[in-house]
């Protein structure tokens, strides 16, 4: 993994917008799925891919909210999906497969952050369940469509939050330890990266490449809805007057640039299994290095990716074989 985790000097950067990454690309005839593609970063990802000509399917938990956000947008289809509900995941995947279409780009974008302790119907901690296990099951079920694309990309939207924690294989659901919303979030984001690493290792020979990414610090999204003012102040995102501090932040369009780059950029042709930032491959950093960027070693270990794959098959209740 370390040998692949080097910047490619893409020519893009933190201020690049999603439309700039796709400028000149013709995605007509391509089909994409963007989970959570109706708000914030996901909405910008949907818009950029659709503007480039792709047909974008947006599965959403809130149909009314999604319909309002996507109104008037061409090349976009809306469907129902709740990543915490296996039956909902299965129904969405079955409906898409029944359409007979190949799937060229799967952007696993939807997620929750720093939520109070909650559990799904199986007793699994909600951030690990929604952010990782739901997408793991969804990707496994969509495998026939990914294979039919004869060259597909699966993109996991992770976060710099993976710096907070690796995957605790002894207690992923906080049954034996006190719940910490940031450790839970960090664990789920590390799982996103390890999933991409494991999927690329298994899928590359079948034409499926996988990527993970940190979109950047973005305040104008619903992802922060569970954060208190105190949380925002500790993160340097709010001043003492209660005003949001945008220094060092990206707009949703800038955050989506790395997502669409991983999904469609020709610069990444023939690559995979890498973690990206600012529309480029990020650098690998040590476990204790003081850095606000880069990939931590616990998210770059193929052995941990394999261990997570086995655990995920068990917890998600699905055999994911390539």
Structure description:
It is a single chain. With 322 residues, the chain is α/β, with parallel strands linked by helices. It has a single domain, classed as NAD(P)-binding Rossmann-like Domain (Rossmann fold), CATH 3.40.50. It is 36% helix and 12% strand. The chain is built from 10 helices and 8 strands. It has an 8-stranded mixed sheet with strand order 3-2-1-4-5-6-7-8, with helices on both faces. Helix 5 packs parallel to helix 7 and helix 5 (126-141) packs across helix 10. The longest helix has 23 residues, at 181-203. It is globular, with a radius of gyration of 18 Å. The chain starts with 17 loop residues before the first helix and ends in a 6-residue tail after the last helix. The model has no long low-confidence stretch (mean pLDDT 94).
N-C termini distance: 20 Å
Fraction of residues in β-strands: 5-15%
- Strand segment count: 8
Q: State the name of the first-level CATH class.
A: Alpha Beta
Number of domains: 1
Structural class: alpha/beta
Low-confidence residue ranges:
none
Shape: globular
Mean pLDDT over the residues: 94
Provide the succession of SSEs: HEHEHEHEHHEHEHHEEH
Helix share bin: 25-40%
Tally of helical segments:
10
Largest sheet: 8 strands, mixed
**Fourth-level CATH superfamily:** NAD(P)-binding Rossmann-like Domain
The CATH topology name reads Rossmann fold
Tell me the Rg in angstroms: 18 Å
Sheet with the most strands: spatial strand order? 3-2-1-4-5-6-7-8
CATH architecture: 3-Layer(aba) Sandwich
